[in-house]
Q: What sequence folds into this?
């Protein structure tokens, strides 16, 4: 169960980082436009 929890936590952190990157990219595009 511990491995599953850590795996889920890793996925959550990865998703969060991806969302942040996407938000930053969108903001950069807005500034460029």
A:
């Amino acid at each position: 169960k511990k491995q599953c929890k850590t795996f889920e936590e890793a996925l959550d952190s990865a998703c969060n980082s991806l969302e942040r990157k996407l938000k930053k990219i969108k903001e950069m595009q807005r500034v460029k436009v």
